[in-house]
């Protein structure tokens, strides 16, 4: 085997390709996060439903998805959906899998956030005759989501770092491209290192973004409009 | 005889299998100011909360302006009150809380304007204008853009009162609104209530441990013990010549502390 050395020329040559992959990675994370947010809120609300059946269904779904590996869920969606006549692109499959998987984690975060809202807030909302809708959207959610912000940020970053799993269904994200480049050129050092560095950079940016958000919305008082 | 503004009729309330109220009756006349006093756990808060629909009742009925609170007519049948009926009834009531319960993520002005916008359907401009007037009335005109976290306890409670008044209730329920405050901040809040009592026509049902305040503001004082009104009367009479031994010992314990 060749001696391990760093080839700057090769690194610069493959960087643009990897950045193309980074776009896909970021897109999958962004769309996956949005879906996870919606799934999380919906499941959190179902968990609090007055109907027994809905509560337990939501609970079952959450437990089931959280206790099976993401990779299996990715494969499952990828191979099963065509059987039932739905053809999803690898990106759509990936977004769906990430969104559902992390949505279940976020559901528990949001539920804890909602339960953490002081009981007096619900009572004030009722005494002021706010509707259920406005009680949730004007009073409870802003406070619950604020409380959930740090944990949500962590899950989004975790999701971002799990995107290489989507290479299993041929999504051309960063990791998949690095592997392809590596096998075509018999050089893995540069592409893999660059992918690692890109992950690091994006994770740091995301972590800083979460910190800035936390500062923009101090828990003791923040303006929504 | 004029119908009472509020009537508790044969109301019962259980926590677990322990009855707190069992056949409880109380009438409050329009514009009357009634103060509830009594030992901790006697049911004062629960009484206000059942009226505000924060707590259900297990028997009997509460009437507001002669209309039942917990039942309504649907398709000419009397059924358990639904949310629509409860919302209609709640419109007459306003409650100020011991711990303020301001919305921490809204400015002071928005706290007051929120429900008028969302419930009364006021325009934003109108609601903010009215909120500013109310803030001036409680002496906080300069705090419109502050957040609850920036205010002292007394200021928070004055915002709490303004927020309640913004919904134009005819009945005010005040549950120990000064007992979470430092002593030096109590009077700035009570002054607002004194002002209201002197100039407006609210029916008030209040719970307080400030006996001098109860004495000066109330038309009637009720001494509650274990879910029963043991004694009631004009404040000067009840405070100076309590008839029941339990009232006497309760008041005596207050004088001592
Ligand atoms: N949600 C509840 N679940 C169980 N018991 C309750 C509940 N709310 C009140 N109680 C009980 O009912 C009784 C009356 O409570 P309530 O809060 O009405 O008393 P209070 O007169 O307001 O007392 P305090 O002066 O301490 O405020 C108490 O014994 C209390 O433990
Ligand atoms: Mg109480």
Structural overview:
- The complex is a heterodimer of chains A (225) and B (257).
- Chain A starts with 7 loop residues before the first helix and ends in a 9-residue tail after the last helix.
- The longest helix of chain A has 40 residues, at 8-47.
- Chain A has helices at residues 8-47, 52-66, 70-83, 90-116, 119-127, 132-162, 174-185, 189-216.
- Chain A contains eight helices and no strands.
- Chain A is mainly α and 225 residues long.
- Chain A has one domain: MetI-like fold, CATH 1.10.3720.
- With 257 residues, chain B is of the alpha/beta class.
- Chain B has a domain at 102-168.
- Helices cover 37% and strands 26% of the residues of chain B.
- Chain B has nine helices and twelve strands.
- Chain B has helices at residues 44-51, 83-90, 108-118, 124-137, 153-165, 183-199, 211-217, 235-240, 245-256, and strands at 6-15, 18-28, 33-37, 59-64, 67-68, 71-74, 77-80, 93-96, 171-175, 203-207, 220-225, 228-233.
- In chain B, the strands form three sheets. Chain B has a six-stranded mixed beta sheet with strand order 8-9-10-3-11-12, with helices on both faces. Chain B has a four-stranded antiparallel beta sheet with strand order 2-1-4-5, with no helix packed on it.
- Chain B is globular.
- Chain A binds chain B through residues 118, 120-121, 123-124, 126-132, 134, 138-139, 142-143, 146, 219-225, and chain B through 52-54, 83, 87, 90-91, 93-95, 97, 99-107, 110, 114-115, 118-119, 147-150, 163-164, 167.
- The structure holds adenosine-5'-triphosphate (ATP) and magnesium ion.
- Magnesium ion is lined by residues 44-45, 176 of chain B.
Q: Which helices and strands occur, and which strands form pairs?
A:
The complex is a heterodimer of chains A (225) and B (257).
Chain A: H1 8-47, H2 52-66, H3 70-83, H4 90-116, H5 119-127, H6 132-162, H7 174-185, H8 189-216
Helix pairs in contact in A: 1-2, 1-4, 1-7, 1-8, 2-4, 3-4, 4-6, 6-8, 7-8
Chain B: E1 6-15, E2 18-28, E3 33-37, H1 44-51, E4 59-64, E5 67-68, E6 71-74, E7 77-80, H2 83-90, E8 93-96, H3 108-118, H4 124-137, H5 153-165, E9 171-175, H6 183-199, E10 203-207, H7 211-217, E11 220-225, E12 228-233, H8 235-240, H9 245-256
Parallel strand pairs in B: 3-10, 3-11, 8-9, 9-10
Antiparallel strand pairs in B: 1-2, 1-4, 4-5, 6-7, 11-12
Helix pairs in contact in B: 3-4, 3-5, 4-5, 5-6
The complex binds adenosine-5'-triphosphate and magnesium ion (MG).
